[in-house]
Each structure stands twice: as C-alpha cells, then as structure tokens.
Design brief:
Radius of gyration: 22 Å
Helix content: 40-55%
CATH class of the largest domain: Alpha Beta
Strand order of the largest sheet: 1-2-3-4-5-7-6
Mean pLDDT: 92
Number of helices: 12
Number of domains: 2
Order of helices and strands: EHEEEHEHEEHEHEHEHEHEEEHHHH
Number of strands: 14
Structural class: alpha/beta
CATH architecture of the largest domain: 3-Layer(aba) Sandwich
CATH topology of the largest domain: Rossmann fold
Low-confidence stretches: none
Amino acid sequence: MVTELISRQDRQRARELIESYGLVFEERFNNLFGIFVDGKLAATAARDGNILKMVAIRAEFQNGPLLGELVTEVLRIGYLAGQESFFVFTSPTNEASFQALNFVPLVRHPRITLLEYGQGLARYLELHRDLVRPGDNGAVVVNCNPFTLGHRYLIEQAAAQVATLYVFVAREDRSLFPFKVRLRLVREGVYDLTNVVVLDSSHYAVSSVTFPAYFLKAEDEAESLQMEIDLLLFGRRIAPHFQVDRRFFGSEPYCRTTRLYNEAMIRMLPPLGIKPVLIGRQMLGEEVISAFRVREAIRREAFETVRRLVPQSTLDYILSDEARPLRERMKAHTRRH
C-alpha cells in the first residue's frame, strides 16, 4: 500500500533509501510517497508539480509491482492537483520500466531520457497545427519578465529575416511577472508585426527550476544537462512541427547562465538542422536594455527610467491598478534588501 510520507522519521527513511543509491534527496516536492514491506521502507517516489522524481526501490523489490503502485498514486494525486500530463527524467537503463507504465520518450540523451505520461506534447502540437505556416521560419524563446524594448528589437530583427517567426513564451510561473501577464505583454508588444506568431511554450521549455538534479553529483553538471535536454526537445520535437530552421537569440554580456545557454545553442542546434543566429542587444546609452534594469527601476519607483526601457503597452500595465500588488511586492523586496 502506498503511503504519503509526512512524519520527520518517514522522510528521513526516504532520504536514507534515496541516498543509498548515490542519489541526492531534494527538499522541493509537493508529495513524498513510500511503500513499506514488513515495516521497512521498500520504495519511495516524489511529485514536484508535474514531475515524478526521487524514485528509489530496494534491490530485492525492483522486479515486482512497487514501481507501478508508486507511479499510479503519484498520477492520481497529480490529477487531483490539476496536472494534465507528467514527466520523468531517468537513466536510459530505466527507460523500459517507465515505458511499460505508458510513459512515452520525448528526448533521449546519452545520459538521461525524458519521458511523458498523458500525450501532452502530441496535444500541444495538434492544438497549434493551424498556426503552422510553410516557408523559411524562425523561432525565439523568451521569458520577458517583463517585455522590454530590447525584446521588441530582438523580435523585429529576427522577423525581418524569416517568413514566419514563432515567439515561444516560457510558461514556467516563477518570475515576478505572472505568465499570463508576460504572454499578454508580448502579444501586445508585437501586434503590428504581421509575420510574428506568439505561443505559450506550455511545459516544453525545460526550466532549470524544474529540472530534477537528484541523480547528478555536481550543480554545474545539472545546469549543462538541463540545457542540452531543453535544446534536444526543441530541435527534435518542436522545431520540425513548426518548420523552423533558425533560432534567434540575443547576446548576453552579464548573465552567466544565459551566456552558457547561448553557447549550447551554437554547439547543439546545427546538427539538428537549425541555424543559431546571434543578434546584438539593443542599447540605451552605454548599457543594454534588459528586464533586470526595468525591475530595478520599478523597485526604486523610477518610472521615467521604465518609460525609456519598455513599450507603451508594458508601461501601461506597470502603472495600472492591476499591477499595484506587483509593484508593492517589488518595493517590499527592496526594503528587505
């Protein structure tokens, strides 16, 4: 019988089981489950949003039904929480075990396989089939926290080079500006560019925030692997559907993670049939226009600075009553720091 592990003692038992296989116990999860056999924890697994992780089963039970029982309970609780599809990252040697439970491989990497339960990617692609346009198409993947004149410049420059430019807005709702707001501001900010199509990335831009690294030893290794999985998913599944053969991105003078991601695109996309195209960042004075500068100006209530960095539609939102709670949270953050 699958039990949710709530007590400190049971969670410590799960940690010991997970770590006995050389894995790392991650504190971030929604639910932690276990199966006890004769009073001993025999198997454990966790749910983090729509991700199944920290799966560990004692050797003597690995050929039995415990994995199926754990997965069934994780999916049941996940569906009750509103999730529609689920993902698991696992080693290639464990891929077949999850396929037997109706998980479908999305990306195979020499070190890890990403599988999905629920046919979410197939539904996502079918939902957007009417937006597929023939021709020389490109793509941009953005977060836009919030949408700035720098984002507008990147999209304008990219759109001028292709028949259709698909702008995928990362759904991961871990930014100060909520996803629905970010998506809306991008659409409002490029409404006049007739060959630009703005899309929700859904769950198919692998976020470093949600990428589980419990099976890796080094943080930088996790960062690199997350980028590679993300690019393989884009290059093998997303780009072919939308007939994309170019991916545009802005230069990055400051953020190490973004710079490493740019380098990964330059390395990995050409073998996948996609040309990486670097576009220089737009400047205001001697500094690049960035969402970070906008957020800092909002915290200081320097709205004249904000006005110079964002389109009118973004400015209207920032100054609106709708955004008042957001402005207050950002000011409070400034006071704490």
